[in-house]
Amino acid sequence: MKFAGTGAAETPEGTAAVDLDVQDVGERGYRPVLWIEVYDSKGVLRAKAKQSRGLLFPGTSLHQRFDLGKLPSGTYKAVIFADTGEDSVYAAQYTVIF
User: Taking 90 as the threshold, does the pLDDT of residue 51 lie above it?
Assistant: First the structure.
């Protein structure tokens, strides 16, 4: 699994969201369970969201939006996880600004 195109966004409802693309760069199809944890500058968990997705075939990608609810303006650390059912869980950390 590979993460790309990560960015912070504001939904039409005025809430915070994180968008990203998830790519299957392997040789097998997966049904990834994706989740995100968002931490403020003091390391306090401020939001988290989880989403199960359909089958993702090798060489394909999907676009995922995590709606995080209301967050105060600021800089946050977002940790994104993908569990494919194998032994390892894929993860990446990003800095996002709302």
Answer: yes
Are the CB atoms for 3 and 20 separated by under 8 Å?
Answer: yes
Distance CA 94, CA 86 (A): 24
Burial of 82 by CB count in 10 Å (0-12 exposed, 13-18 middle, 19+ buried)?
A: buried
In whole angstroms, what is the distance from residue 43 CA to residue 59 CA?
Answer: 35
Is residue 71 over pLDDT 90?
yes
Cα distances (angstroms) measured from residue 16 to each of 3, 6, 59, 66, 82: 19, 14, 30, 9, 21
Give the global pTM. Answer: 0.90
Per-residue pLDDT band for 95 (boundaries 50, 70, 90) equals: very high
Q: Distances from the Cα of 61 to the Cαs of 2, 10, 56, 91, 97, in angstroms?
A: 9, 23, 7, 16, 25
